[in-house]
């Protein structure tokens, strides 16, 4: 495989709470992203997936957030060491980002056109008129009809799906190498979700843009992702190709997640499956333990006192659970063949 | 939009009627009236009159309902009647004194906004810095100390130390701009700082609140510089609630700042209203209150129209 365009190495992002307590939102996270690759980062609320994505663009509000250590290499350049003005060049141009709630992520008192044009004019030398033409092209590209007229609309005049497509148009205006999508479809109707995802996938094909999709929707992942990272408690606990993770899940948490997806092929009496317990309060999980240990039925004492060593199960498949063999029964149950 | 303005203007008429009725009734409910004062004064001047004659002279001998409608009829013809004590008609008095109060108010308003909005933005941008704390302490200080106290100090100490006192004779702005300004500047600043304290805190809070919004994060993610995020993205959104506060203070302008007008001997409408109340000068009080409330209504209408200009989501339909 070619050189990765983005390498996240041992990233640690913390939030300092009142009274000085440190909350490790992202704890020693590493992953690579290659050109045109679609990477999915999966985890429940509070698992650190959004924080890890925002850390890549250094968008963590400080205080209270702080990137404590690690490297974020974009084409070999460490973004954590880059100047603020260098970051401003990269944001929205080389690495773009779209967010969960399109309705609140667009400025309510600026027209869609002005918001897209702002991004274009920040990163190119186009004149205002040319920027408007480019904005019109972009809106047409994301299938918004009458783009020339809709440019003058305000966000509240767009539907949720159109707002998210306008966000995509804005993010794609400089043909970025990487598009980070932080739960891009969570706030949208199911039918609109499919359109938006299809859109993202088409853009990836057309412009070779790598996608980092942060989600808790396993359906998205199974359909579009090349590689999947499962996050829990700020760490990647399992990763691999989509096939590795869905056909052969190893970590008890991954198995639990897949089990929790409602299945139409099983009797209704099975009910909705859940993972018992609650997501951990990150400030109280000891650094040298498995973050999932408190909820894991296979946990032993060692899980609570020693940070599990990750191991490569195959060339592509990684898992951080030494006791994963114990879950083999459950694994068979969840994998659909 | 046009339809909305017409509707709002037409609504002014019943509102004016209600204001007139309330102020008319309240005045009649007050104990004592101008008649007694006039009788005493005329007797002292050596004329023998009785109360009934005076009452007839002032038009107070007919039933109140008739008094009200004849007055309200005059209002609709822009005739506010005559003062009981002064030779001029109420309209003339208001026309003479309103601009004086307005000048003081406008100076205060402009200064208050020039001080508070930039400093509010600054405090928000430098949240929790030393400068932020110091400015906020000043803001709370000027909001809380009574104006008459600062006004008295400002009048007293410069006079004692440097022999300086503000002008106390009124000259119109056009007749003698320098003397006019030397009279209005100090009370203008004093009027501004109290207002500025409130507005600084509101601006700061609103800008901080806006800076936490998702679209600010989007702006940063686009590569917008911090300064542009503040001015282009946060400022306009933060101004929506600030406008309401500014609007409320514009309405208060026309009422004149009674305290400042008294301390600095400015012959504005606020001073006039207080005097008229003491003398139970019904037509003058009613006229002043009517003009003030009309002004507030018109300012509110303008502020409502401003919302549309700032926030495209506002719809008048």
What does this structure look like?
The complex is a heterodimer of chains A (337) and B (317). Chain A is an alpha/beta fold and 337 residues long. Chain A has a domain at 232-334. Chain A contains 13 helices and 12 strands. Chain A has helices at residues 49-56, 84-90, 102-105, 112-123, 128-141, 147-150, 160-171, 190-207, 218-224, 242-247, 252-259, 301-305, 328-334; strands at 6-16, 22-33, 38-42, 65-74, 77-78, 95-98, 178-182, 210-215, 227-232, 235-241, 311-312, 318-319. In chain A, the strands form 2 sheets. In chain A, strands 6-7-8-3-9-10-12-11 form an 8-stranded mixed sheet, sandwiched between helices. Chain A has a 4-stranded antiparallel sheet with strand order 2-1-4-5. The radius of gyration of chain A is 21 Å and the shape is globular. In chain A, 46% of the residues are buried. By secondary structure, chain B is an all-alpha fold. Chain B has 2 domains: 12-76, no CATH class; 98-310, MetI-like fold, CATH 1.10.3720.10. In chain B, 77% of the residues lie in helices and 0% in strands. Chain B contains 13 helices and no strands. Chain B has helices at 2-29, 34-44, 51-58, 64-76, 90-125, 130-144, 147-162, 177-211, 214-221, 226-253, 258-263, 269-278, 282-310. In chain B, helix 1 packs antiparallel against helix 13, helix 7 packs across helix 8 (177-211) and helix 12 (269-278) packs antiparallel against helix 13 (282-310). The A-B interface holds A 57, 59, 87-93, 96-97, 99, 101, 104-110, 118-119, 122-123, 154, 156, 167, 170 and B 213-215, 217-225, 232-233, 236-237, 310-313.
């Amino acid at each position: 495989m070619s050189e990765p365009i983005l390498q996240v190495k041992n990233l640690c992002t913390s939030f300092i709470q009142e009274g000085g307590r440190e909350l490790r939102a992202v704890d020693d996270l590493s992953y690579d992203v290659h050109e045109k690759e679609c990477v999915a980062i999966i985890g429940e609320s509070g698992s650190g997936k959004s924080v890890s994505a925002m850390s890549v663009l250094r968008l963590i509000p400080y205080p209270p957030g702080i990137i404590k250590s690690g490297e974020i290499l974009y084409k070999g350049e460490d973004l954590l060491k880059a100047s603020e003005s260098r970051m401003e060049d990269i944001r929205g141009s080389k690495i773009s980002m779209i967010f969960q709630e399109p309705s609140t992520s667009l400025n309510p008192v600026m027209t869609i056109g002005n918001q897209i044009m702002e991004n274009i004019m920040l990163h190119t030398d186009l004149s205002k008129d040319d920027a408007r033409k480019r904005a019109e092209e972009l809106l047409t590209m994301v299938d918004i009809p009458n783009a020339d007229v809709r440019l003058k609309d305000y966000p509240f005049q767009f539907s949720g799906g159109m707002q998210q497509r306008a966000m995509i148009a804005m993010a794609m205006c400089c043909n970025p190498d990487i598009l980070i999508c932080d739960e891009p479809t969570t706030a949208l109707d199911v039918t609109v979700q499919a359109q938006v995802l299809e859109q993202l996938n088409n853009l990836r094909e057309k412009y070779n843009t790598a996608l980092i999709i942060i989600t808790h929707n396993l359906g998205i992942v199974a359909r579009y992702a090349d590689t999947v990272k499962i996050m829990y408690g700020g760490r990647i606990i399992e990763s691999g190709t989509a096939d590795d993770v869905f056909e052969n899940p190893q970590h008890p948490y991954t198995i639990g997640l897949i089990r929790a997806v409602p299945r139409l092929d099983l009797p209704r009496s099975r009910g909705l499956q859940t993972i018992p317990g609650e997501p951990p309060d990150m400030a109280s999980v000891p650094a040298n333990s498995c973050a999932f240990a408190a909820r894991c039925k296979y946990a032993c004492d060692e899980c609570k006192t020693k940070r599990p060593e990750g191991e490569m199960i195959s060339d592509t498949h990684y898992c951080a659970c030494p006791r994963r063999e114990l879950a083999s029964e459950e694994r068979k149950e969840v994998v659909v063949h | 939009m046009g339809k909305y303005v017409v509707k709002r203007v037409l609504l002014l008429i019943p509102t004016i009627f209600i204001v007139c009725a309330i102020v008319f009734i309240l005045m009649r409910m007050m104990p004592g009236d101008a008649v007694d004062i006039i009788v005493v004064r005329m007797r002292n001047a050596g004329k023998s009159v009785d109360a009934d004659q005076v009452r007839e002279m002032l038009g107070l001998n007919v039933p109140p309902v008739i008094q009200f409608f004849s007055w309200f009829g005059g209002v609709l013809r822009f005739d506010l009647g005559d003062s009981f004590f002064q030779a001029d008609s109420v309209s003339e008095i208001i026309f003479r004194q309103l601009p004086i109060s307005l000048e003081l108010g406008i100076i205060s308003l402009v200064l208050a906004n020039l001080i508070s909005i930039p400093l509010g933005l600054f405090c928000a941008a430098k949240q929790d810095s030393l400068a932020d704390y110091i400015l906020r302490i000043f803001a709370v200080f000027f909001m809380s100390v009574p104006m008459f106290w600062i006004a008295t100090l400002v009048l007293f100490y410069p006079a004692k130390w440097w022999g300086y006192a503000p002008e106390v004779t009124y000259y119109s702005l056009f007749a003698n701009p320098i003397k006019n300004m030397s009279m209005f500047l100090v009370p203008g600043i004093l009027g501004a700082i109290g207002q500025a304290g409130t507005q600084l805190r509101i601006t700061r809070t609103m800008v901080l609140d806006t800076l936490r919004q998702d679209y600010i994060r989007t702006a940063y993610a686009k590569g917008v510089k911090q300064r542009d995020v503040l001015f282009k993205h946060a400022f306009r959104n933060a101004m929506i609630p600030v406008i309401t506060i500014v609007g409320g203070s514009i309405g208060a302008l026309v009422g004149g700042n009674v305290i400042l007008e008294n301390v600095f001997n400015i012959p504005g409408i606020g001073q006039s209203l207080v005097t008229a109340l003491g003398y139970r000068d019904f037509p003058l009080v009613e006229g002043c209150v009517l003009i003030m409330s009309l002004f507030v209504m018109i300012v509110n209408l303008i502020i409502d129209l401003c919302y549309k200009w700032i926030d495209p989501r506002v719809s008048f339909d």
